[in-house]
Amino acid sequence: MARELTLRDAIKEGMTEEMRRDDTVFLMGEEVAEYNGAYKVSKGMLDEFGPKRVIDTPIAELGFAGIGVGAAMNGLRPIVEFMTWNFAVLAFDQIVNNAAKTLSQSAGDFNCPIVFRGPSGSAGQLAQQHSQSFEAWLANCPGLKVISCTDPADAKGLIKSAIRDDDPICVMESELLYGATGMVPDGEYLVPIGVAAVRQEGTDVTIVSFNKMMNVCMDAAKELEKENISAEIIDLRTIRPLDYDTIINSVKKTNRLIIVDESWPYAGISSEVAFGVQSKAFDYLDAPIIRLNAADVSLPYAPTLVEGYLPSPAKIVNAAKEIMYIKS
Amino acid sequence: MTELVKKKKKKEVEYSKETYLNWYEVMLRVRRFEERALMAYGQQKIRGFCHVYIGQEAIAAGLTSAIRPEDAVATAYRQHGLAVARGIPTSECMAELFGKETGVVKGKGGSMHFFSKEKRFFGGNGIVGAQIPIGTGIALAEQYKGTDNLCVTLFGDGAARQGALYESFNMAMTWKLPVLYICENNGYAMGTSVERTSNVTDLYKIGSAFDMPSEPVDGMSPEAVHEALEKAAAHIRSGKGPYYLEIKTYRYKGHSVSDPAKYRTKDELNEYKAVDPLKVTESKILDKKLATKEEIKAIKDKIKAEIDEAVRFAEESNYPDPSELYTDNYVQKDYPFLE
Ligand SMILES: Cc1ncc(C[n+]2csc(CCOP(=O)(O)OP(=O)(O)O)c2C)c(N)n1
Ligand SMILES: [Mg+2]
To answer: What does the pLDDT read at residue A55?
Structure first.
């Protein structure tokens, strides 16, 4: 059986189940307890677990991220919520210099089983500082694993896997999609880290994406269908480690690849996927790989400037036609 | 309510009619501006985050009378009132909220990011506490250039818990930088009261760890704000280094437009509404016979017309051309952006 759940409730269920299962797991962050979460992801968790395990912090990202790292080194499994990943930039020192490196520095003596989570990506007219995607920044760093998935069922299974994982994990959610719903299975289940999902099978072109751009890709797929173009849509779900096998197998079938990635194009996830595919499946490609990213700029406020910033279904349809050599 | 606000001041310094009317006008301009912004937000003409200054206007008022136009100001996203007080025209501020090309930053920054080199306004920062070291650096540049100017660096009670504050206070004090730190303590950081964030709830005491002169100030009174700022500014200009004021104030609205503010009581809100700086100043002006009812009405009419005009200007202006997405990212004109 399955129920319809919002993304925020699915993530909450995942965290709640793990906290019931393992009393070393606790949640910490700004407004997570008494306010029930800035985006209500942790609604009701203070009531169930009390202030020892659902902890409101001051606005001090560097400090509480580091406190999480120390607690993880000393036997606990913290979940550190950032109100958004834009503010986690203050905590990058602890994530990158400590969480990611503890195992290596201690030659395996200490690990750091911690989950850093929060929404990533743009959310309308929030302007330069509140609109950034951080998958590429963190996936660049060895020692970290990065998850970015907005399908409610998978997000729940992945957060549970992340909490049980013995390595530090960054989980990217989406402010705009917390209220979006999906069918979530009843009962206990996990979704493995490092495995992509084929959301729609197709034969003409492979479209690879993640997080809220998945919805844009699914919309594009419907448009393409009207033009008799069959798209295979892959949701990466995990950004690091990347599931090259699923992508390569798809490209071997479709011979064409479009990558839709909300992060900036420079040195991004899209470059990584494109590099992997050309090196592992060069002979299967019938056209150059196309990537669609956010524009290579800081996102301003005005609606006319937001409009052109992100990939859209129309841009994906045009890209598909271009690599299929169809004149539009 | 804090003791400070309740306590009646012992000696009342006398201020001139001009000073009172200036404070009144500034506070009224800010209040009406913010009310219209909220209305426009309700009509979806303003989007994104929008944090208004209603309740905190006495700080804006004191800033206009105690600080020179050459002094710099750096603050956070709750900035409309301070920007208006620094002389950025309400029309440009409103157009910015509407995302129009005639806005103070061409519609690129929106509610959280106003900047004006001309008015020495160094922003509107959306990252809590980020302006604390930046304001300190602006002050370093003034010291370096040998000017007589200072940088007023404002931040919230929530921001006072960021590590950057402690690093900045230390360097500013060690290097005797001309910076006036102001904590606008409105009691809450989003839904978190000051009491829930620290053992130290008198935020002015943070300064003592650095031997920085620090004081609490009644932020509902333009007189108190003015006096404190004037004294602090004189100290700083004499070359003795930074000064820190914790100005105790209150926001009458939620944190942002989307916050219903359920974490505080009606009684608490009403206590602070009873000392509304705008209303108190208006009665004071009338009681002291500094102006007649007619003169007050003339100011109200003038401000109403100004804000009406600001809204009209914002509505009738154009959105920036989509090509503006690629301007102002680099000073280099032919920068090769990736496709
Ligand atoms: C580094 C960072 N963390 C979190 C946020 C989210 N946030 C925005 S405003 C705010 C509360 C700040 O409160 P305070 O400093 O008291 O200022 P006030 O809003 O009361 O003016 C928070 C947590 C942010 N913008 N930046
Ligand atoms: Mg505050």
So the answer is: 98
